[in-house]
Specification:
alpha+beta, about 20% strand, about 400 residues
Length: about 400
Amino acid sequence: MSVNTMSFEQAATLLNAIHSQVTGSAQLAPTDVSSFISVAQATLQTGYDPVINAISQVVGRTIFSIRPYNARFKGLQMDSQKWGAITRKIAIADKAFEDNQAFNLVDGQSIDPWVVNKPEVLQLNYYGFDTYCKSFTIFKDQLDSAFKGPEEFGSFMTMVTQNALDMLEQAKESMARLALDNFIAGKINAQNGVIHLLSEYNQDVGGSFTAVTIKDPANFPAFIKWAYARIATLTNMMTERSQLFQIQVTGKELTRHTPFDRQRVYLLNWLLNNIDARVLAETYNYKFLEFADVEAVNFWQSIQTPDAINILPVVLQNNGTLNSPASAVNQSAIMGVIFDEDALGITLQNEEVAVSPYNPRGSYWVEYHKATMRYYNDFSEKGIVLLLD
């Protein structure tokens, strides 16, 4: 019989064979369905439309493939911004305590009450924009032969528009992912706030596990519970007002703290799933997972290598300037990142949808979706990177 053609096939033989297996009157047997299952294919058995050359002219029923996409990393999307080319961030550095002069009084001497003590101010600046555009053409009459009526044409245009919106939504996600990757790479490059979970575990329990042997069923449950406790401890340490887990600008050291409701905890899906299955399934104590903003990340940079990044980052130096390392940070076994909500994010400027005037000669018009995006990292805020090494 022909395969996936426009002919009519007799299905009685196949139905009888399937029915006998379904009802138990026959054993499981190889069943050839290649002549009966209609599989979506790009090969067209009829003519194409005259414009796009991809839509058939003869249609019985049309299924419009529409599925809106929602970008991940919503916690990184900040308020939109319209005015100004520079974003500045002003912080106050701690200054040393002074002696209480009320207990150092000397007869015949006065105490100057007007000694100037200026605040130590650090201003950090963000520059730069990333802009993009997505457009598509809307034809007035050329696609009429491809659809049965205005309802189908309207559904088609809805699908085209939704595709553009999905791409723009994924663009936001991709920019957020880059912001996150740069922060991770920068922390690793500076060796600031980098936690080596496996090394710490080996030191704690007197073991010599590797990234391979720790996943053995006999070893893994104890490790994952230890890792959960270690991550919970780190999120608690983030709430302390200290200079831990942040890069300092010399002479203007900042002391910061990050409450639980200001923490962002992004864990690799593999780690979070194992915490859910092996730790939370046995305890009601959710700790940081209950209070912080926790999100599962399927991959950091490439979906082919979920736990790795290969990024040439831009990093804040101790003198307040920026620098890129000589080579890219090529790091695998990244299990998670914890950071203050002000440490990184993305913001949109001048997002718009515009339609061109109608072209009477060509009988079409063009719709444009535009936006300008900024994404930032602030390494003076607290941040921790978790590695399985």
